[in-house]
Amino acid sequence: MDELYGRDLVRLWWVDYAGVRRIRVVPARRMKENKNSRIGITPAALGMPAVQDTAPPLSKLSPVGECWLNPDWDHLIRYQLEESRRSVPFVPVTFHEVTEDISKATHISPWPYCPRSLLQRVTDNIKTEFGIEIRAGFEIEFLLMEEDGKGPPLGGSGTYCAAEKYEIASEFLGDLNEILENIGIKVTQLHAESANGQYEVALTFADPLTAADKLVTAREIIASLALRNKMRASFSPKPSPDQAGNGLHVHLSIWKNGENLFDISAGEFEQAIQSASSEPGMFIAGILRSVHALVAITGSSPLSFYRLVPGAWSGAYAAWGMYNREAAIRVLPRWSNFEYKAMDASANPHLALAALCAAGAYGIQNKLQLPKPCTTDPASDPTLSSLRLPSTLEHALHYLSVSEEGDSIRNAFGMEIIDAFCETKRLEHLLGADLSLQQLQEQYLFRY
């Protein structure tokens, strides 16, 4: 809090279960006057669907009760979009529950529904039980569009990695890279993507909590910088019916005693990762076991399942492969990590990483054997049709809430948060059930 200045307007941020970035803006003066620097808020602030400010009654995230937003000052970031404008303090919060007893004494305790607290708990447990630390890095895909959101995407109709298409947005992307570098968010690469006006920014690895926080900060800056340039940025999973959707692929590696366990020589990698004692193989096997349930969290809007289709490089099959972009998991021996592809911006990144880590840890705990890799496009092989991931949010929620495939996530999260999440997403599914694809696309274009 010492980094706050008198006229600062502090943006306290969180991501709700629907994947929506939300903020409370508080003058620095009030933060300093408030001894504990906590801000009260309704429990429903976590449990509203992306398209409506109503919490489902069965979720227990209701308008009744009180939570405090507890700023995590260790993760405060100040960003500046223009030299002539003030920098913006951007601070993640954890949720705490507030209760009063009969004597009117106030009691504050960690709230079991808080996504950031959950992610920290899951990764701490993995380190304690297995001595393993996890590192994650995200790839952010987005469209640059006219300011009113009604015109065609900017950046032209060039294809994947087209030089001219990059050049059209090069000033924006150059400014973005500089802003991110100035606040310690390192970019590994930027390039034009497949859809009209679509670009990708890849971030470096960090521990899961830091990686998720930096992802949210980067998206906030992308959206804000676009507005400063009289544009809008869309992170929607499927902004156009006949163009590629926006993914949010995440790369993961696991570390023990300071060494990356995926750091295996290329010639030995495939055999080593499939050995019975391979912890990287067990970790991936755990994710594959739960991937039908995982997609309820990692691609959690009705629109997500229009992106998660064969032929879209979205990872629509419960398979893994060496450099296979149609499998849910693409293993990258040259880079000593693997990529989980079945994810988009509708995911709460803290919940998504917690679920991936929990599923992977289950694989290690139960010494799951990694199946043979998928060496072809799964869509071209009829024998692999059973590996197709759920085609609707409702189907994915069934796997998460009651199926055996979801038990590793349920056990790690606890049923309180699982039930609340599923009720929130079921309401979102119902709200979109009678809408056409075009109506869904219009509704979700700028939700994230």
Give keywords:
448 residues, alpha+beta, nine-stranded mixed β-sheet, seven-stranded mixed β-sheet, 13 helices, 16 strands, 22% strand
Detailed description of the structure:
By secondary structure, the protein is α+β, with helices and mostly antiparallel strands. The chain has helices spanning 28-33, 115-130, 163-168, 170-182, 208-228, 266-273, 279-298, 304-307, 349-365, 393-402, 407-413, 415-432, 437-444; strands at residues 9-15, 21-27, 39-41, 67-71, 77-79, 88-100, 106-110, 132-146, 187-192, 198-203, 231-234, 250-256, 259-260, 317-322, 327-332, 337-340. The strands form 2 sheets. Strands 8, 9, 10, 11, 12, 13, 14, 15 and 16 form a 9-stranded mixed β-sheet that branches. Strands 1, 2, 3, 4, 5, 6 and 7 form a 7-stranded mixed β-sheet that branches. The relative contact order is 0.14. The mean pLDDT is 92.
What order do the helices and strands come in, and which of them pair?
Elements: E1 9-15, E2 21-27, H1 28-33, E3 39-41, E4 67-71, E5 77-79, E6 88-100, E7 106-110, H2 115-130, E8 132-146, H3 163-168, H4 170-182, E9 187-192, E10 198-203, H5 208-228, E11 231-234, E12 250-256, E13 259-260, H6 266-273, H7 279-298, H8 304-307, E14 317-322, E15 327-332, E16 337-340, H9 349-365, H10 393-402, H11 407-413, H12 415-432, H13 437-444
Parallel strand pairs: 1-6, 14-15
Antiparallel strand pairs: 1-2, 3-4, 4-6, 5-6, 6-7, 8-10, 8-11, 8-12, 9-10, 12-13, 12-16, 15-16
Helix pairs in contact: 2-9, 4-5, 5-9, 7-9, 7-10, 9-11, 10-12
